[in-house]
Design goal:
By secondary structure, the protein is an alpha/beta fold. The protein folds into 2 domains: 177 residues, P-loop containing nucleotide triphosphate hydrolases (Rossmann fold, 3-Layer(aba) Sandwich); 116 residues, OB fold (Dihydrolipoamide Acetyltransferase, E2P) (Beta Barrel). The strands form 2 sheets. Strands 3-2-4-1-5-6-7-8 form an 8-stranded mixed beta sheet, sandwiched between helices. Strand 11 and strand 12 form a beta hairpin. The protein starts with a strand and ends with a strand.
């Protein structure tokens, strides 16, 4: 059985070491098992030796990106025989390449990205692609040292659109915590008999339905969508959606929901259609879990929207 690896990504001084220390001291996580921490970056914070001893934790260091390979990591495993590995990544390294170097005895279980809210804008401007890599790969994203101003800024930068699956939290500078989507209702009426999604709201609809699928179960929606035929979809299935600008013009992706045509003919690919459909929340491999599946109730050809590309301001 492969050793589970918890990966902590993020730039220097983003709070990785402090977060790891808090997890190690959680009895529900440690349970007297042996943990190996591999640090690829050392900031101002250091692990207390007493804490390491109490939590049955040992630490190895890798300073050079070129040294981070399967052979070295396997030698750490043979030396310490850990029950789990915590990997504190260097924020300047290529995350995908580094994780591709893990030996077969190690398997990524969770990837957590920590971000200093105070420096988010600066790093986004100067190292945007690396920031996107850290965010888009994460299962959990934590913004530390957040305040009202930085929370507003981060939400305005479409962070959710970079990763619709991750749990995102703010750890505020006053000691409180909050969910990224807290207090952000959608701009349309969820209680309407037919929820009309205006063209400029599709990105918000997509994110909100992904994050809160239970709120859409049984609801009927109407929106304009561009038709895509996926190779892995059923014969009566298609995806109406839109091209979305995740962070910049160079980072575009198609987003939408699986739709079952039922008694209707599957529409021509790359056509624009006005879709009216009832939503059911179902387990789908494409969603990697439960998600909105549309059941077509009406469809008619439509003109493309004025702005074909959607943003995800939410």
């Amino acid at each position: 059985m492969a050793i589970p690896v918890y990966v902590f990504a993020g730039f220097l001084e983003s709070g990785k070491t402090s977060f790891i220390a808090s997890i190690l001291q959680d009895p529900g996580f440690t349970r007297d098992e042996h943990t190996l921490v591999i640090q690829c970056e050392q900031g101002m914070e250091e692990f207390e030796p007493a804490m390491l001893k109490e939590t049955h934790t040992e630490v190895e260091y890798v300073e050079d990106e070129d040294e981070f390979d399967a052979g070295l990591l396997y030698s750490f495993v043979k030396r310490h025989h850990p029950d789990r590995v915590i990997l504190e990544m260097n924020g300047m390294w290529d995350l995908d390449a580094a994780l591709g170097n893990l030996p077969g005895v190690m398997e990524v279980y969770q990837l957590i990205t920590t971000i200093n809210a105070e420096t988010f804008e600066l790093y986004s401007m100067n190292m945007g692609q690396r920031m996107i890599q850290h965010i888009s790969a994460a299962d959990m994203i934590v913004f530390n040292r957040a305040n009202e101003q930085t929370r507003e800024l981060i939400r305005s930068r479409n962070v959710r659109s970079m990763n619709v699956r991750a749990s995102i939290y703010f750890e505020n500078d006053d000691g409180t915590s909050e969910d990224y989507g807290e207090g952000m209702p959608p701009p349309y009426d969820l209680d309407a008999d037919v929820i009309d999604i205006q063209d400029e709201w599709f990105g918000v609809f997509y994110l909100h339905a992904q994050e809160n699928p239970e709120m859409y179960d049984g609801k009927t929606v109407r929106f304009k969508g561009f038709i895509y035929h996926g190779k892995k979809l059923g014969k009566d299935e298609f995806v109406p959606g839109r091209m979305g600008m995740v962070c910049c013009a160079n980072d575009m992706r198609f987003v939408g929901f699986i739709c079952k045509a039922g008694e209707f003919k599957v529409p021509k690919e790359r056509s624009w259609q006005m879709i009216t459909a009832r939503i059911r929340i179902e387990e789908r491999e494409e969603y990697r879990g439960p998600g909105p599946v549309l059941y077509l109730e009406d469809m008619s050809p439509a003109e493309p929207p004025v702005e074909e590309t959607v943003m995800f301001n939410y």
